[in-house]
Amino acid sequence: MQLVLSSAMHQYAMWTELSTLNIGANLQHYNPLVDEDVAAAFDISAHWALIAQMPFGNIVEPAGEKNYQPVSERMKVLGLKNI
Questions:
Q1: What are the two backbone dihedrals, phi and then psi, of residue 4, each rounded to the nearest 5 degrees?
Q2: Distances in Å between the alpha carbon of 74 and those of 12, 29, 49, 77?
Q3: Which residues, at least 6 apart from 15, have a Cβ–Cβ distance to it below 8 Å?
Q4: pLDDT grade, residue 3 (50/70/90)?
Q5: CA distance 16 to 65
């Protein structure tokens, strides 16, 4: 779990720094769909784990508005009594 928590903090710090430089970024999590192809394309050791990728570059246009599903519909807490 430490690896994932550390990775998230590094991702956030990198995204924040890129933002201060007016550089756009997009954090993508979709492994294991591409793990083998990415490892082969970039000669990445089998000891490494793909957590996410963050393409970055010029901001061509502002990000569009996002619509979010209500939290009550996308998250469930099990094992606790409703308070």
A1: -65, -45
A2: 23, 18, 27, 10
A3: 25, 27, 54
A4: low
A5: 20
Q: How far apart are CA 67 and CA 74, in angstroms?
A: 13
Cα separation of 32 and 49, whole Å? Answer: 10
CB 24 within 8 A of CB 56: yes
How far apart (Å, rounded) are the C-alpha atoms in residues 49 and 7? 11
* Widest Cα–Cα separation across the chain: 52
The better pLDDT of the pair 41, 2 is held by 41
Amino acid identity for residue 51 in this structure: I
Contacts of 27 by beta carbon, 8 Å cutoff, 6+ apart = 11, 15, 52, 53, 54
| Total residue length of the chain | 83
